[in-house]
Amino acid sequence: MLLERESALAEATAALRRTESGQGSLLTVEGALGAGRTTFLEAVASLARDRGFVLLTAQASAAEENFRLGLVRQLVDSLRGIIPPDDLDRWLRQANPALPGHLPPSAPAVGLFTNIPPWSRYSWQQAPRWLAALVGSISDERPVVIMVDDLQWADTESLEALALPLAQRARRRILFVLSALPGDARGNRRQVRDLLSPPSAQEDEPASAAVPLRPAEKPRDTTLRLAPLSLGSVRTLVETTLGEAADPVFVGTVAARSGGNPLLLRAVLDEARFLGLYPTAADAKTAATLRPEHLRQRLGAFLQSQPDPVRRVAYALTLLGDTAAEQFVARLADVDDTEQAQAVEVLRLAGLVDPHAYRLTSGTVLHDLLEENMPAQERTAMREVTAELLHRTGHPAEVAAEQLMAVIALRGPQAVQILRTAADSALRRGSPRDATRYLRRALLDSSLSGHDRARLLVDLATAERSVATAASLRHIVEAVPLLESVRERADAMLTLGPLQMDPPAFRIDAIRASIAEELRHSGVEDHVERELALRLEAREHILAAQDPAHLQSALRRFHDLGPSPRLATTGERELVTSLMHIAFVANAVPAERLTRLCTQLLEQEPPTAAHVHTTLPLVMNILAGGGRTDGAAQWLRKANQIAQRRGGDVEQAVIRSEQALIALAEGHMTYARNKVIQADTLAGPETSGLPTVCAAVLAIVAMNTREPELAEQLLTQHRLHAENQHLAALLHVARGTIAARRDEPRAALDHFLTAGRRTQQIGWLNPEILPWSSCAALMHHRLGEHEEARSAAQLEVDRSRAWGSAGTLGRSLVALGRVTSGREGPELIEEAVRVLEKGSNGYELSRALYALGTHGDTRRHRRVAALKRAHDVADRHDDPALMKQIRSKLIEKSRETEARGNRLTPAERKVARLAAAGLSNSEVSRQLGTSSRMVEKHLTNSYQKLGISGRAGLAKALKGLDRDQRT
Description:
There is one protein chain. The chain is mostly helical and 967 residues long. 63% of the residues lie in helices and 3% in strands. The chain is built from 47 helices and 5 strands. Helix 42 packs antiparallel against helix 43 (880-902). The protein starts with 5 loop residues before the first helix and ends with a helix.
């Protein structure tokens, strides 16, 4: 398929027509390496055959460069099998007189082609006359095309032989079609230049006898330059090669990969077809990495044919990329200005250098293949020089650092310094992932040791904590022993956020304790060391939060701080937060006090992404658990915006976990669930998963949004789900919920009780952390174990009253009400509704109203009213699942009311209404004209159907019936 060559083919067709009329000419075809010169020549040859031309073709190659007159033999041999033998024999005989010792034209031929001259017996001076005579004989009868591809590879004798017939083209029906790769060193030979740009055509006569051609006889030579393909043609070729409609992303990818160069494009597409790729956006990423082997070989052959300065300049341009400048290229390639200019011109003519800029042409595959063609040692040396050169001349540090990312081994401190500077730059622009790349590369420098290596490890851990928490932890542990002072070691340890410090990992708690002990005995008491000590103590409390003995000492420490602890410094705020976390999980301090302190603390902390590496996420836990979330959502929204600009996956994942918890506390279930999905997506294997606290938060949100399967998945994929007692307890609650859904109450109860044992073992008694007891109560109730059910539910109510949060207490009262029979059950749920109305969690209020409306002992009129209000509240909080559940119950109640009303016959209705109005049986009998006995019978039936004992309850029952029917 020949694309975007219509105008060039039109020029070729015009040249063929002029040749037919006796005006021969030269058609030169130029184009970069891979521009499609050979394909275009084939198209011109097809046009010539269709018009009846005699076609002499030859393909020059490096293998035949030293074969004397090899190109001429190809031209003559191309006639074999195409021209009738008699015609060819005649033309050869007519050409023989041009050689000394020729056979007479009448001599008989001895077999086919017997008159082709024995090439080894004639000198190159004789070949031009014989070839000119042969072509002249043919052109006397039929027009001729002499076509040579890759002329730069032709042997010198053949080039000399072509010069004479070329000079005679204007007066004969001969069209020369020649192609050559611009910039090739062999193309600079005089003989090649003379053929591609011949002087004014003259007959082969002595100069004194030459007769100048008249202007009308001068040949109309043409040069055609083949340009890269447009995006539209790239699309056409993609769809033709791969056999289906192409996605714009895939088209753009292969266009960028090939630069529109036909050879490169076809090679990339052939490779894609071989690998079974489809022209889709999904496969575009793979297509962007394709490096066809035969392209590598062809480019390598071209470079090997060039002088050393050309190769070195090509390599320099490859490494410098968009930063290439003349002075840089010359220094990097180690060439002088003249050599550089000549090399760039050669590469530009070959299509490897942009004609309008000092850089390689577009097409990433070309860049990749050039780099791979470089010898490894030379590439390493040139990259190191390039990095230092760019750094010294004021280029961005990251541009210089990219050169060092591909070297085999770093040499000297200068390379390390460039990488560290680039890492600082990457962090400032919000790319901790790039900063991590640079610092990991710097760490490979074998000359780094001791304190220098330790500082690099700390810098690396600082970058890694945003993208790979486990690696960050590992590098801090490696750095600490190498640091010289206790302050440095403490600073390094505090690089890690307390949420990312898992106690079993790398003995991190033992190392922290050792540093803290060393600080206590340092004998220096200043503000800096006091801050370090407070922050290390905060981490101690968080890491030991599941140790019951430590819980008691931490609670005493919190009590000693007084009702209004100092919150002036970072260390003081982190310590107070860690102690509040202990008081929260142990249910040792009421919600009102803790949330008040958390609010004061949050007012002193500006929203930042880095807050996830402090104790602040625990503040969000307490605020959500205490139901005091005013301002928290807005604070987190601003922090998340900063995190998105900084690009840290860990920060974004933790913040989304915090947002999910706050949304859950406010009853926005759909929003909370979406944040869970986002956080889980960000917390992939590379980040080592979410911190333990955040994994617990996401599991709690998933279970509260009726997705225990998602909670189970989140927990089981966490690396500490078996070691961490809280995560293990949550996992049992998730599995218990799933078992309850499968109608396996006994298995569910076992899971819930196991969860309770685990949390009580570690002293975590706050039902806001894990409401296992109410879950167990419901399973006891389902199994008919009513005493156990009420006991378990009452335990949670008592603990919830101690905590004092409206949401927690409301949920616990609902559970107690559901397992309590008689009028006390609805009364407990009514209390739950009143409690929840004081809070901001509309979802929990809606669930409480639903429980009231579905309790078997709730009065009928109250059931419907509770369900209607539950539906309205759920609607305001955008909970489609709960709304659907409530609507189903409303329809069911409506049908029950309708059925109950329909059980009274019309006669019974009339009698009942008159009796309810105060008429006696005899008065009703007289008014309706029926017997007293019939009136008594109708009233008895009505009492039974309405569920009342006698006339006293009749008016109220009929009133309720009417209200239910209206509803």
